[in-house]
C-alpha cells in the first residue's frame, strides 16, 4: 500500500523560495564578495601601481625581492613534485587496498589541516634546531636545516602534502578496482596498469590537487616564518619579504610584491574553476558506472 503522493506544484512550492528572498540573499552574497574579495584585490593592484610603472618594476627587480621570488619558486618546485608522488601513492593504497592502519593513515594525511602552521614550524625547530633532537649531529656534520633553505622546504612540504591525496582519494574510491583488476587479468604489469588505466582516470583530479598544492606552497607564511629566521636576501620567501617591506613603511614595494601573489591567486582561481568542472564530471561518471 503506497502513501499519498505530492503534486508537482506542492513539491515545487516546498523547494522554491520567494523571489524577494532569493534577491536578498544574492545581494548579500555579492556585497560580501565585494567588501572582502573584490575591493581588497583592487586595492592591492591600485596601491602597487599608484606611483607608476618605474617604482613597481624597481620593487620587483630589487635584489632582496628577486631572492624572495627565487626562494619561493624553489620551495614550490621541490614540495609540489614530492607531494604529487606521495599523494598518488597514498590515494592508491587507500582506495585500492584494505590493510590495518588505513584509518590512521587517513588521519595523518589530514594532520596539517588541524595543526596550526606556526606549531608545525616550531616542531621542526624542536627537531632540527641547534638545541633540538638532531641539532648536535647536524652541527657536527656542518649541516644547517633551520634558518636555511632545507627548513623552508620541509615546512612547505608538511603544510601542503594533504592537497593531492585528498583530491584523489574520493575519485579513486568511486572508480573502484574493476578496471585495474581486469588489466591485471589480461597480463598488464603494475606500471602498465597505472600508466594506461589509473592515470588517465585521475588526471584531472591530479592536476586540480597540484594547482591547490602549488598555490598554498607559494603563499605559505606561518610555518615558513618560524623556520626561516627572516634573513634578508637568503631565507625570506615572498610573503615574508612583503611583511618586512610593510613593517618598514615601504608600502609601494610591499604592494608591488603582493600583486605578484595576488596575480598568482587569480590564475589559480581560473585554473581551479576549469579543472574543477572536469573533476566533477569525472567523479559523477565514476559514480554512475559504479551504480550500474
From TrEMBL:
It is a multi-pass membrane protein. Gene3D superfamilies: MetI-like (1.10.3720.10). SUPFAM superfamilies: MetI-like (SSF161098). Keywords: Membrane, Sulfate transport, Transmembrane, Transmembrane helix, Transport. This is Sulfate transport system permease protein. It is found in: Cell membrane. The chain crosses the membrane at residues 25-49, 69-92, 104-133, 145-165, 251-275. The keyword Transmembrane applies. It comes from Sphaerotilus uruguayifluvii. The complex is composed of two ATP-binding proteins (CysA), two transmembrane proteins (CysT and CysW) and a solute-binding protein (CysP).
